[in-house]
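Anyone up for a design puzzle?
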């Protein structure tokens, strides 16, 4: 079941869209706190976004830009501001389609179905993980933190994925090494230390000091 997030401040429209799209077997939520749009996007992890332009606090263009920093999720703009300038702006900012209000529910259903099919027919779902403002993008192995984008090596990515999946828990070195090299054969224990040290240096350069904590004799954790 594909998940859709509606970012629309007109509650009647948001509820109407949710009710209609749920009938088509989509899982749907809508934003209620327009100061925390990105946080809800990360937590809900939708496969498609319906996004209005005129919103409280920040415009839909702002939120589209923020989402595009961490995700390639399909975005359909829905707005009564349907002049050519706004349509061009919406697509330029990273939107995939534009639908003018008032719209027919059958039209938006057709657009959603087409975009979902086009986006996910030959690939897995786009996923992100978040911890204390650090966003790990599982689709392209990048880390985002305070407008900084960090490219990760394969081992960097795997280490962070393991630790962020188990945030707040100490993960043993043996478990990390097995996941990292996918082998039961002997790997020099120092190899993991070297990998973690390199990753820490990369994180520190991005302003993330002490993101990974060492539990001496046991392993590592992010808390």
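Challenge accepted. My sequence:
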């Amino acid at each position: 079941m594909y998940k859709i997030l509606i970012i629309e401040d007109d509650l009647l429209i948001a509820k109407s869209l949710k009710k209609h799209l749920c009938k088509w077997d989509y899982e749907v939520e809508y934003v209620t706190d327009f100061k925390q749009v990105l946080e809800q996007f990360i937590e809900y992890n939708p496969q498609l976004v319906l996004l209005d332009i005129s919103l409280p606090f920040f415009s839909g263009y702002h939120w589209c830009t923020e989402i595009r920093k961490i995700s390639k999720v399909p975005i359909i703009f829905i707005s009564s501001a349907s002049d050519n300038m706004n349509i061009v702006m919406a697509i330029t900012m990273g939107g995939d389609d534009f639908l003018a209000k008032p719209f027919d529910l059958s039209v938006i259903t057709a657009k959603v179905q087409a975009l979902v099919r086009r986006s996910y027919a030959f690939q897995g779902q786009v996923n992100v993980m978040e911890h204390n403002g650090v966003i790990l993008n599982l689709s392209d192995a990048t880390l985002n933190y305070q407008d900084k984008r960090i490219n990760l090596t394969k081992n960097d990515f795997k280490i962070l994925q393991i630790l962020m999946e188990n945030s707040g828990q100490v993960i043993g070195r043996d478990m990390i090494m097995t996941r990292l090299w996918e082998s039961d054969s002997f790997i020099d224990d120092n190899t993991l230390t070297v990998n973690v040290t390199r990753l820490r240096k990369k994180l520190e350069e991005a302003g993330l000091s002490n993101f990974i904590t060492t539990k001496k004799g046991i392993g590592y954790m992010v808390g």
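A detail worth pointing out: The mean pLDDT is 87.
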